[in-house]
Write a structure and sequence with these properties.
The chain is of the alpha+beta class. The protein has helices at 3-7, 30-50, 66-69, and strands at 12-15, 58-61. Strands 1-2 form a two-stranded parallel sheet.
């Protein structure tokens, strides 16, 4: 079944999926980079395919709190 069968109408979604693998890009492995990016991108694509985008009032995707707080790496 769909999420709409389970929950009814969905008016808004906030997506903040993420994994913590802080490191400077020069020190980050390709696998680590993929895990971090894929966690955001794959979940966003899954949401886009499951949601009725034309009926949403809002859809927020949060990238990283680190962009605001300034964690090193």
């Amino acid at each position: 079944g769909s999420i709409y069968e389970a929950c009814g109408n969905i008016e808004g979604v906030i997506q903040g999926a993420g994994v913590i693998e802080d490191a400077f890009i020069k020190d980050k492995s390709v696998d680590s980079f993929r895990r971090v990016v894929d966690t955001k991108v794959i979940s966003a694509l899954e949401l886009a395919s499951a949601l009725r985008l034309d009926t949403l009032k809002f859809l927020f995707f949060f990238s990283s709190i680190v962009g605001r707080t300034g964690n090193q790496g």
